[in-house]
Amino acid sequence: MADASATTGKVRVGTWNTELAKPSSVRGKRVRPILAAPGCDVLCVTEGHLDIFPDGGYTIEGGDDPCHPLEEGQRNVLLWSKAPWRDVECGLEMPTGGFVPGTTETPIGRLTVAGVCIPWHFACVATGCKDRPPWKVHEDWLCAFKRTPYATASTKTIVLGDFNQWIPRAGAWPPRKPSAALCQTLQGLCISTRGKLPWKAGDGHGAGPPGRGTHLWEATLDLDREGPKAGDRDQLIDHIAHTPDLVLARTEIRNGAERTVGIFPRRTPDGPLSDHAGVWADFTAG
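Below the sequence we write its predicted structure tokens.
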């Protein structure tokens, strides 16, 4: 996939939970060039650092989470764009730290983007407030997000970030209730990053070699009629959802059963990058 910004009519967006990698650390020095390599027009980084993004561009950030204090320069969710941000929302009735929306100019025109970091299933269980059952904070976040205009948008809107769920569920994970809550919350949006990764030998930690002839990782996501099985653990939890008027540029089958996306891998031969595999993709305006 060529640099989307050089291709008329396509926008390239990506998201990656970088596991709080500091740009000056050994791991951060591996993460930062890989994050920049696809030449995305818009990036969402969760559990990230303000200086992890490519040179130039414009950054907006979500608020703090008092239950999970971070070190200087670290943020729960960040959005970066090659173009300036406008209409940045603040003060919405959302759990703090896991949400930041704005609009920016892209190769397909003005795009509304909401960066999210949906709390993991043990939020405020073993850490933070330590007063909630598993999935409670996750489900409360979804309930709050459902009331925002971004959950019900109909045109040129992308919601991306750390969803902390496989889509669709595989076996008993995630449990039926939070899985159904996520599907209901995003029922008006398309999730082009759902399905199983094709890594060989059940490799849930890496992405194999980069695509042939490039320095970029790619994967074809498979979504058969029966969905992933209990043992299919190689799925994304960092996702890209979007309004139906945006179309994934690399859809192999008409019903979307196979989709090709870019991958930010969990590790390379040089060592670990993150505990998440990130994802990036090209979209056209349908």
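DSSP finds three helices and 16 strands in the chain.
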